[in-house]
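Hello again,

I reread your note about wanting to compare the complex against the isolated chains. To keep things tidy I'm splitting this into two emails, and this first one only covers the full assembly. Below are the input lines as submitted, including protein chains and any nucleic acid or small-molecule components. They are followed by the predicted structure of everything together. The single-chain runs will come separately.
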Amino acid sequence: MNLLLRTEQLVAGWQQPATQPLDLTVAAGEIVGLTGPNGVGKSTLLAAFAGRAKVFSGRIEQADGLRIALQTQDVPPVVGLPLSGRELLALTGAGADGLPAWLADRLDSRLDKLSGGQRHYLTLWAILQAPADLVLLDEPTNNLDVAGVAHLTAHLRDRAAAGAGLLVVSHDTAFVEAVCDRVIALRGKDVG
Amino acid sequence: MSAELFLFPFLTGLGLAILLPALGCYLRLRDEWLAALAYSHVAAAGALLALVAGMAPVLGGLATAALAGAGRRLFARRLSGGAGDALLLLGGWAGAILLAANAPMAERLGHALFDGQLYFAGREQLWPVAVGGIVALIALRALSPRLLLARVYPDLFRLRGLSVWPIQAGFDLLAALCLALATMSLGVMGAFALVFIPPWLAFRRAANWRSGLRWAVAISLVAYVVAFALALWLDQPFGPVLAVLLVLAGLLVA
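Full-complex prediction:
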């Protein structure tokens, strides 16, 4: 098993600890889900893996030369910006192959002319398809309709089959069960 | 002789009418358009200070603007929300006006810097604009993908091991030097008008980033050529004529 990420008793946070100690592994080709109630620290953990949040105790081990891509819940500031979908994909190095037809046809439109769902999926796709060994996704199904969630589910499996490891934070239980190989449930009552 | 008299000013302004809107697109991308106005005022104060000290005004303008551009990043955290740019602007304006009011030799240059008397530009203004403009456009082209990525996906930018600081500081310095060069011939508000209005209009209509840049430069060039001819014909200072034309274009399109 080619381990990409491993944590040991990891406690992360911003100004103060925000998570309970976590042991976690993500291997190449594997999709791991992180679930739990609001405020349990799921997004903080992703931020810690990406080197943005502070590690208060425990440790994070990453494979040598690991390339990480992170999708956050922050909406990229594209409103008012003349940036097309095709230009966005070029910025992250993502390809357009595999995009759903309802989005592939609109690649040359400005991002702020797309619907909220279309824009979300395209900005998500730009991260998903960026050259990376480990992809961290924070609530990827937000703003997606049923067709979008179905396409995302199939695509995440393809991405994992191609060798990437994926860590998915989501409150969408059905999506997590459908797409993840393993699910780690963070329990709210454990958080101080 | 008379052709040469107007050729140097025209070519100087033409170079700036290409450079400034392109620079303005990236300032607008980063929500830093107020910095352009701050750099212009600081450059004007620096030019007047240099004149009073017996040095070349253009060197004083470039040096103080470069200092402002480089120093701006150091105080970015403490002076957030545009406060740093506002303080620079007010400091530069106050310094320039006080120098012009108290040093007789600085009064004429002060008027030229704030009125925007492009027709006084000569060979010594044209060459720095031509060489500096080409270097700046090449630098902008090289920085463009990183500036866009840093704005749209700051986390991915950092995860790729790209350091934000040199890109930000490099861009700040580039913008400050370009604005200082432009202020010396177009004046404070003439330079600001070309940095602000063409990108603002282009961002509203362009289909993508590349066409946004092209639209901004095209709007700037048309406004510049018309303003040059109009100001000459009406015997008016160039900067305000350019600004009025761009404001009218802005009101019409918006």
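For quick reference: The beta strands of chain A are 3-13, 22-27, 31-35, 54-62, 68-71, 134-138, 165-169, 182-185.

B.
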